[in-house]
Amino acid sequence: MSKSYVKKMFPGAITSKGFFSYYDNIIQQDCRHIFVIKGGPGVGKSTFMKKIAESMLEKGYNLEYHCCSSDNNSIDGIAIPEEGIALLDGTTPHIVDPKNPGAVDEIINLGEYWNEEKITNSKGNIIETNHQIGRYFQAAYFALSEANNALDEWEFYIKEYQDWTYINQLFLKVEKEIFKVIPKGNGKDRHLFAWAHTPQGKTQFIDTLINGINKLYTLSGQPGSGKSSFLKRVAERAIILGLDVEYYHNTLNPSQLDLIVIPGIETALVITSEPYTYVPKFDGKIITLDFDYSLDNSELKKIESDINDCRQRVNQHIERALKNSLRAKQMHDLLESYYIPAMNFTAIEKERSNILQRIYDMIEKEKVIAVSKQGPKNEC
């Protein structure tokens, strides 16, 4: 098996609309098997999944790490796309309801391995800490709502002075370049986040998401200059033509896009401008599209102070959100401290080994079925 690689993304995000989830997009519901991991904070769900992921990587399987927006050192899930297998954190706020229980979805409850009496002794502290965590997250949502309002105002100023005829012509030109050769397909869409507001700051792993891509279009320009709409138009065209598209939504306003990946034609388009600036480390062909080029800068000069005020407020409120995200993480660490002493980690490790072996068995069984379907080879 060839050298394995890891793609990292966020299935949920702290946004101006509150916590926004695309957990249903981690893996298709017609996959082979989904392990839904239940249990409280500190029971070892993330470590449980990470160790299984490490074992699968050593075997040469490609993986997806679905990172936690509340702590980018943790994961909310792992997926083995080629094998149709996933492990997901099924606790609040990323509730995963089994859609095919028994047939596909299986619940693994790590709460079976704790000493309930020890946890009960910390009941008051647990309730109060959870309350404080909720307040910090709500404060982060308020801050991001204000950042989004300031960004909307910024876009309001810019849209008035964009040459939309030029942008439409640019789209037609790029469309012709991208869709020269179209492989046959069904045109499936998948929705996730490339960025997140984490306790560690604005975080992204876009370089991992464009692994296997040969051509990258980078879209630069101020908010309101048409970048996200451009991505949507390209994505919609790709779907119509029968191509699969990975949509990566904006972590401030999920109705907008930061990145689209079209694996079937090895092409991606990404926004590289503020307030989420991305500098790609990419070996393939990069084509830069400058959306500020067609702005009427003489008119914008007259409202430069208003635009600068918007920019300042956007960044100020995002920083407020990040501070509250960090506070929530610190309280979550405290919450975990009430659970960790109550856990039987030896039993959890035994369960992890059992699940890992079952995954290996599922894969081997599928290989045997695939070989049997091919039938015996004709010998000369």
The largest pleated sheet is described as:
6 strands, mixed
**Principal-axis shape:** flat
Number of strands: 16
Q: For the residues shown, what is the average pLDDT?
A: 92
How much strand?
15-25%
Order of helices and strands: EEEEHEEEEHHHEEEHEHEEEEHHH
Distance from first to last alpha carbon:
29 Å
The secondary-structure class comes to alpha/beta
Radius of gyration: 23 Å
Q: What helical percentage do the residues reach?
A: 40-55%
The strand line-up of the biggest sheet is: 1-5-6-7-4-8
Uncertain segments are: none
| Helix segment tally | 9
Q: What are the key terms here?
A:
380 residues; alpha/beta; 6-stranded mixed beta sheet; 9 helices; 16 strands; 42% helix
Short description:
The protein is an alpha/beta fold and 380 residues long.
Structure, described:
This protein has 380 residues and is α/β, with parallel strands linked by helices. Helices cover 42% and strands 22% of the residues. The protein starts with 5 loop residues before the first strand and ends in a 6-residue tail after the last helix. The strands form four sheets. Strands 1-5-6-7-4-8 form a six-stranded mixed sheet. The protein has a six-stranded mixed sheet with strand order 9-13-14-15-12-16, with helices on one face.
Give the arrangement of secondary structure elements:
Elements: E1 6-9, E2 12-15, E3 18-21, E4 33-38, H1 45-58, E5 63-68, E6 71-80, E7 85-89, E8 105-109, H2 116-121, H3 123-159, H4 164-178, E9 189-193, E10 195-198, E11 201-204, H5 206-209, E12 215-220, H6 227-240, E13 245-249, E14 257-262, E15 267-271, E16 285-290, H7 297-300, H8 304-339, H9 345-374
Parallel strand pairs: 1-5, 4-7, 4-8, 9-13, 12-15, 12-16
Antiparallel strand pairs: 2-3, 5-6, 6-7, 10-11, 13-14, 14-15
